[in-house]
Write a structure and sequence with these properties.
- The chain is mostly helical and 270 residues long.
- The protein has one domain (6-269).
- It has 10 helices and no strands.
- Helix 4 (74-93) runs antiparallel to helix 8 and helix 6 runs antiparallel to helix 10.
């Protein structure tokens, strides 16, 4: 069996800790990003939404770091790599928005920690993936294929995330006016990185086509979607519920949660 390379396992351990810290900063301290986060996010709904996805990433990280088979973690690994690369690009494009020169030590430390993580982690992740490709062994045999309707739902969700994420990232100004809550170019690209990365996870789940290989995907989807929906409930006054984009985003989260819950239930049967 082709096992996970120790470097990759270590990165996921580190990622789960960093994601927990970011999740706490953004989800529970949504109105204090000017003090406790790397840049100021005016919209508390936006901050909480990013925090929700970081808690999902923490779930991916914890579960992946405990796995042995590479086949069971490919989706989260490729998704993580896409996320950190896009986040690095977004950071460099909006460097002036970060608290790198803040007089507050906590605020300045948070900003420089962000810069350090997203400058180093993409390189380490790339090296880890190259080392992983050189690990000998074969994937475990598929024992329980996904039904066609599950693969279809995964495909719809993945394509929605990748297309919407790509639009938000490469042309944020054209979509910001239609978005159901207040966005800036930086927060649009930060959100886009998550949508695109989750789309990669979903596409890889289709390629794996096995319940055992998609356990981590299902758990991560459940946490990400449920926390993001909770963020909408907490800050519902900031959400334009009647806009087409608002309805589409809500449908995206509900579909993600449905995929996660159904996958976990069907996995137990399988």
């Amino acid at each position: 069996m082709k096992q996970i390379h120790p470097w990759l396992r270590a990165i996921f351990y580190l990622g789960s800790v960093l994601s927990l810290l970011a999740g706490i900063q953004l989800f529970f301290l949504s109105d204090k990003t000017d003090l406790y986060f790397s840049w100021t996010i005016q919209s508390t709904l936006m901050a909480a939404t990013l925090g929700a996805f970081y808690f999902g990433a923490m779930t991916f990280g914890i579960l992946t770091s405990r796995e042995k088979a590479w086949a069971n973690v490919r989706g989260p690994a490729f998704g993580l790599f896409a996320f950190i690369v896009l986040t690095l690009v977004a950071t460099l494009l909006h460097l002036d928005r970060f608290h790198l020169g803040s007089e507050n030590l906590v605020t300045r430390t948070s900003a420089w920690l962000w810069m350090s993580v997203y400058s180093v982690l993409p390189v380490l992740m790339l090296i880890a993936l190259v080392l992983q490709a050189r690990v000998l062994g074969a994937d475990p045999r598929r024992t329980s294929a996904l039904p066609a309707w599950v693969r279809l739902l995964l495909l719809l969700h993945a394509l929605a995330g990748i297309l919407l994420g790509g639009w938000l990232f490469f042309a944020p100004s054209s979509l910001i006016p239609a978005w159901p809550w207040a966005l800036t170019p930086l927060t649009a690209r930060a959100l886009a990185a998550w949508l695109f990365a989750l789309g990669i996870v979903g596409l890889q789940a289709i390629l794996e086509n096995d319940w055992q290989r998609n356990r981590i995907m299902a758990a991560g989807f459940c946490v990400s979607a449920s926390m993001a929906l909770l963020a909408l409930v907490r800050f519902s006054s900031q959400m334009n519920w009647q806009s087409m984009m608002g309805i589409s985003y809500l449908a995206y989260l509900v579909l993600m949660l449905a995929i996660g819950v159904m996958s976990l239930l069907l996995l137990r049967r399988a």
